[in-house]
Amino acid sequence: MTSGLGKLSARQRALLERWLPGASVERNHSWGLVETTVLEMTCAGARFIVKAGGDGDHHIERELQAHRNWLAPWTGRGRAPTLEHGDAEAKLVVTRFLPGVLVLGSEHAEVASTYRQAGELLALLHAQPVVIDDDYERRENEKSVTLLRGAHRIAAATVERLLAEIATWPAPAAVLVPTHGDWQPRNWLIHNGVVSVIDFGRAGMRPALTDFARLAVQDFRRDPSLEAAFLDGYGADPREARAWHRNRVREAIGTATWAYRVGDEQFEAQGHRMIAEALR
């Protein structure tokens, strides 16, 4: 095992030695704002992606759940990486390397066909068996209230206005489907014109409309033709107006407070903009 593994625990390194004996690190893909280490490695001529979580990590368990329960519609088409090894307790996952470049920051991020394919892929994920959850809306409301009462830089008057609005919201039963949780170009790869999906650390059972949230405040806002292409690929729009508004407010609160905690000022500014737009 070569350099690049310094942030991994002794247990994680031992598992990698067993799973990928003699492997070498080719590239470090870690983001830096969170404690997840992401390494591209080679072993016996094959390429892998290794993700290792820190002590407070909750993403690896979600990633493994997604691989084991929800990704077959994508992996069966070669549109998502396949799971090779995983240990939720050790917070370690190994997948086969998927070729391609990130859509984010590339010319493909402005091309309608990219979004049409992304819509088609998301529809495949959402088409799996649903769950009716009578308590989902109440839980999400409580999460937003907790965030607003925690550490952030949202103006006090805005906090009071948000709390007052959330107190009026209904809590109807919700239809939940497998969702990616961070559906946007930074988690799409493209190779020979074909879009694939990576990063399942926020995967979970949620309403389908939640996977529209990141695109709506970024890419669709920038170019409505990308939204049209996405919906052409996805099919019927699941964003019922009242539920969509509640989700927009929750996403805005979550963005502003999370970005503040990790020190991402640009993303925090986006969160404050999202709050202002949602309240309008």
UniProtKB/TrEMBL annotation:
InterPro entries: Aminoglycoside_PTrfase, Kinase-like_dom_sf. Residues 80-244 form the Aminoglycoside phosphotransferase domain. SUPFAM superfamilies: Protein kinase-like (PK-like). This is Aminoglycoside phosphotransferase domain-containing protein.
